[in-house]
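[step 3/7] fold_predict: job queued, chain A
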Amino acid sequence: MALAETLLEFGLVPNGRGSGTWATPLLTALPFGYLATAQALAARGARVDNLAATSGLGLVAQTAALYPSRMQARIVRTTLRKCPPARSGPTG
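[step 4/7] structure written:
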């Protein structure tokens, strides 16, 4: 996370566009298990407006709000409350 904070201080654009799976720094940090980095990016203005970002950050209400039906939203809320955000990657 220290590297991300340093890069942000020196002008890293938190919503910089990549391509494919690695569309943004936040969406790149999450699948590699860098939750603290993803949280730092979100705190500095990275967009958190899709299922991958909201669920990866453990934002229950925001994730549920992205589902069209109440039943789907209820399932998501229940699942996310019982499962902490992903912690895979180098730091385990």
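[step 5/7] annotate
The chain has one domain: 2-9+22-82.
The first helix runs from residue 2 to 9.
exit 0
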